[in-house]
């Protein structure tokens, strides 16, 4: 049994797992509609999956008001058989997930990993449901877990992934890479102040169980693919910087970005770490009066490239900030997959988040779907008018940056520079 500290994002996800709304719990569903799964093979594969990955054998405890993660040598995660209550297997699966997340099973010292096999009411179809806390996975490691489960079910050896402790030792141990990262973040954030989106319901006046809403908009065809040499993530980040600068009437804005946290430090094992390596990375944009859209995009993209080498260290905490972020940008650079190979065939893949997204911080997202670029805003349901307004403005600004990329117009008017004078 080994104990390790948790990262700042892990601490947030643990809180959002043990107390409602449990926004850090996600259920991944694999639908086998042609004959179901072989029970013995599935049980064996699930047990081998848990044995192969430390993060699935991790439980979280609290010590002196601080969360600690403990990796145990053995952990029995049973495959619980359930029977669908209706003829609609997908609806029954969603109902099972909704009932489970409202249970009292999520507590410190207990596993956050759950496995269910839901059997159809009137056919041989089955649904394998994997419930997991975001404190144990990220967008890189979840597909790897599914890949390993498929291989183990087929009786194939899996390629070992680096344990999450590898990532922790590289990011929390003092050394040249960490020293350089701390210096970088302190320099980037010197003299800055966190940008707070005006018009939100204050956190101390919000409901303890406030819910989030997610609004989306598809951008004009000219936005995808983005201008040559510019990434979609850069468009989103630059667009949000403009929205904040205009609303706050300041040329210096600071917010967060969700990044993979997998930059190489003392080695390259972080590329295949099984666990939640993602970080809230600071994004600071200090506009120049004469900046055109092209210059803004270039500056944002250059900072992103420089920050990438240091994002394994949580930049806000590294610079002595409390880790609170009012808004974050997140570009999802993968298409949602609806099926995957399994046992020589195909299974349909579904995702359920019964409690939805966290209402705070405000999240700005971009993603590609069916060949088009979309942007979205996640915010508190009670701030629905603000969310709708922000989405409309963000979509217009991002589209405007694309069309203005060649014409030389300045990005901000003089009103945004008044507070600096």
From TrEMBL:
GO MF assignments: catalytic activity; phosphopantetheine binding
CDD domains linked: CT_NRPS-like (cd19542)
Condensation domain span: 4-311
InterPro entries cross-referenced by the UniProt entry: CAT-like_dom_sf, Condensation_dom
Biological process per Gene Ontology, one example term: secondary metabolite biosynthetic process
PANTHER family in the record: FATTY ACID SYNTHASE, NONRIBOSOMAL PEPTIDE SYNTHETASE
Listed name of the protein: Condensation domain-containing protein
Protein species of origin: Staphylotrichum tortipilum
